[in-house]
Amino acid sequence: MSKPPKLGRGLAALIGDAAAPAPAEGIATVPIDQLSSSPYQPRRHFDETKMEELTDSIRLRGVLQPLLVRPKEDGWEIIAGERRWRAAQMAGLHDIPVLVRNLSDDEAAAAAIIENVQRTDLNPVEEAEGYKRLSTDFALTQEAIAQATGKSRSHIANAVRLLTLPEEVQAMLRDGTLTAGHARTLIGQPDAVERAKRLAERGMTVRQAENLVAPRQTKHKPERDADIEALEARLAEALGLRVAIAHGRSGGTLTIRYRDLDQLDMVIAKLDV
């Protein structure tokens, strides 16, 4: 088995400022037609309305934040800032500010993914795919990804779990028909596609979605409290693990099922003990 690629610098340094630029690095203004998009760009969808809003802003104020780029033979490759580049073209700009970094292919891929998943306008599937690439291509643990992106480890785990959903449900996440909160209630459900359509058609809240996918009661089992079931679902979503609550008149038990020590560490960190 081939070893995963290694990053020559710390992850934070890949998208840091230009306080001490290396030779041929730093802030510059370059012709817009000498830039090209990156093959490592995690974003697949560019919302038309948001692009028009960004174009109007750039037309009025210019590009306020430089693009992160690396030099190539015939110009510069965009590592982060493709939306600004596209909007600047639409606004009719001829030059654009950039931050030049001499990055290897592996460093460029990691920097592109990290910078983009830190933004709020990626759809949940694009975000999850970015985390998965950092894990599979660079052998980063969820803890390392969390530190590099400023997210919690449970957020990383819950995001990646969305990729286990059927493609039809993922498509609903991409176009905004479902939120990530709704979609997480469908993970592991055999009829996830049908349930997803019902959630979208009825405009249910996440709490209602949790109740919809709660296990159905049988005639041989006592009816469970809906609030307890909803609490189980919320805890499971927060931890990314299976949770069971058994509640009675004199108290009860909370059971959290984990698969390995990494998951146990995550629970302990959540409890801050």
Give a nutshell description of this structure.
By secondary structure, the protein is α/β, with parallel strands linked by helices.
| CATH hierarchy class name of the largest domain | Alpha Beta
> How big a fraction of the residues is strand?
5-15%
Total individual domains: 4
Q: Shape from CA axes?
A: elongated
Characterize the structure shown:
This protein is of the alpha/beta class. The chain folds into four domains: 25-120, Conserved hypothetical protein from pyrococcus furiosus pfu- 392566-001, ParB domain, CATH 3.90.1530.30; 123-164; 167-213, no CATH class; 227-273, no CATH class. The chain has helices at 11-14, 48-61, 82-90, 105-117, 124-138, 142-149, 153-161, 167-174, 180-184, 192-202, 206-213, 226-239, 261-271, and strands at 26-31, 35-36, 67-72, 75-80, 95-100, 242-248, 251-257. The strands form two sheets. A five-stranded mixed beta sheet has the order 1-5-3-4-2. Helix 2 crosses helix 3, helix 5 (124-138) packs across helix 7 and helix 6 packs across helix 7. The two termini are 38 Å apart. Residues 15-23 and 216-221 have low confidence and may be disordered.
